[in-house]
Amino acid sequence: LTLGVGAVWMFLVGPTIIPPDFVAARQRGAEFALEIGVISQNSLRSLDEIAIHDRVGNRAEALVLITRELIKNRELHERAVALSTELAKMAEQIPKLRPRDARAVAAEALSYEVAMVGRLLGYTASLKELFEVLRAKLTAREGVTNGRVQDLLAQINASANSINALNNAFNETMRKFDG
User: Fold this and answer.
1) What is the mean predicted confidence (pLDDT) over 104-109?
2) Count of CB atoms within 10 A of residue 161's CB?
3) In this structure, are residues 45 and 92 in contact, taking their beta carbons and an 8 Å threshold?
4) I want to staple 155 with a disulfide (CB 3.0 to 4.6 A). Which of 8, 55, 115, 126 is the partner?
């Protein structure tokens, strides 16, 4: 009887199919996500260093760090775009996933991660603007920020919280997919 139920189950549900292209895109996406996390953490640490250099009057070193961070910010943006490309590849494979429940779970997970990439692009734009405002402040040698630094930091923190929540939702949903 158990064998018969299993045969009926396999007939109705079918075998589990996860296309290799889905797996490969997921792995590359995970690599990009890891790089994004590292670059973001390093940029936040650099903000602290820039503030220290500014406080002690070492504007030249602060400006060097800002220039480096603007370059890293471009890399962060490029990684976010690359991640979105891998997500698109995963999405293309969803119709090939079996069983049907796996397709639904994968689609849900991808919706979280696509939203996360959108927020990440906003985060990189705010971070870039912050570094540009800091550079203007340091080169003008006067208070040209008019509270803009605090506003941008608030935007960056809100984006970071949203990014983390969406990424956690993606990871939790993908655990269901794997499970």
Assistant:
1) 96
2) 11
3) no
4) 126
Whole-number Å distance between alpha carbons of 179 and 172: 10
At 143 the pLDDT is 62
Res 2: pLDDT? 45
- Structure tokens, 146: 């008019």
> Are the beta carbons of 102 and 34 closer than 8 angstroms?
no
User: In Å, what is the CA distance from 88 to each residue of 4, 65, 163?
Assistant: 39, 34, 18
pLDDT average, residue stretch 10-25: 79
Q: What is the full DSSP assignment across 2-15?
A: HHHHHHHHHHHH--
CA-to-CA distance for 87 and 24, rounded, in angstroms? 11
Token couple for 58: 């070492």
Beta strands in the chain (DSSP E): none
Q: For residues 79 and 140, what is the distance between their CA atoms, to the nearest angstrom?
A: 32
CA distance 120 to 137: 25
Chain Cα centroid distance, residue 155: 16
Q: Is 98 left (phi over 0), alpha (psi -120 to 50) or beta?
A: beta
